[in-house]
Amino acid sequence: MSSTPVIDVDRLNLTYGDFRAVQDLSFQVRRGEFYALLGTNGAGKTSTLETVEGHRTPTSGTGRVFGQSPRDRRAVRPRMGIMLQESGFSPDLTVRESLRLIGNLTRRIDTVERVLGLVDLTRKAGTKVSQLSGGEKRRLDFATAVYGAPELIFLDEPTTGLDIQSRDDLWDAVDRLREDGSTIVLTTHYLEEAQQRADRIGLMHKGTFHREGTVSELTRTLPAAIRFSLPDPAPALPLQARREGDGKYLIETFGLQKDLHTLLRWAQDHAVELGDLQAGPTRLDDVFRALGSDQLTP
After folding, report:
1. Cα→Cα distances 256→225, 233, 274, 279, Å
2. Closest CA to 175 of 148, 160, 196
3. Mean pLDDT for each 10-residue chunk of the chain (298 residues)?
4. CA–CA separation, 63 vs 53, rounded Å?
5. Nearest to residue 83, comparing CAs of 109, 119, 56, 58?
């Protein structure tokens, strides 16, 4: 397997007038990796991806795909599939015609029938795009991205508008593509999808990375939480806790197992019932919320 990264971004800058959308951004995506690029609204992730996809020229810095400039469409485009948030298919083309057109434009080799079966649109092959439901159009977007099983696939909000079964089917198809060696780059507002599937995550805020790493590495930057209610009166707690607005107590800890054991032993020793007890590690959405506060530092 080649050690050359599939995507190599080095000190990328993008400006629009006086506004710096992306600032000195550097990251790599390895071959076969599932990489999620996440960020707050206006963080610069769309501008970054448009540059990597070859749709935008950087103000300064470089973005390389397969070791090539993404603007070299003849070299790069046949190896890359892109699922946009909105594809803009011609409403008068049928599903089959739309897929065949994408194959011709990208010069990727596949059969329309195989891809239609992959996304469960075989029965809609002769239907015009204008007559598809929102979920069916989204599946067609996915079909055009994976036509020809490209080496690199960009998925921009891929499950928006899909029902639960269609989401499961889409991710099953992505899993099969990964087994065959495809590299996946995901952007999504469904953070649980990134948490469950991404090998690594780049978390953008105000044009740069605030964090990059595995889910475990990102969530370790914030404490875990233990929440519970107490009868009144109650003995003094064995750990420092904060009373929240709903009357529950909150213990924040980087030693969840140890502190939970201490709390439960205290409750047993004093015959105290811990009402509505909840305990768990930090989730990715907690890290994401902290971007807008001072809890995370670059």
Report:
1. 8, 26, 16, 8
2. 196
3. 84 92 94 93 89 93 94 91 85 94 89 92 94 92 93 94 90 92 93 92 89 88 92 92 91 95 97 94 83 52
4. 9
5. 119
